[in-house]
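Pasting as-is:
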Amino acid sequence: MFNVDKFIELVDKRFDNNYTKCSKEIGVNVSTISRIINKEIEPGTRFLKLFSEYCKKNRIDINKYIFLK
């Protein structure tokens, strides 16, 4: 399960709510960021992997964003 609300906070704080900056930093298409934030799609495996790597590299607690049932 992915915590979209926490992700929105991250995008707002770290990227000044700039989806393009966020997408480049994580390594996904800007439309993916937009669709996740607008709750149009659930994050896929590729996004979760790249986001996890981004969090690890930037010492961000991934458990705030991704959690298992």
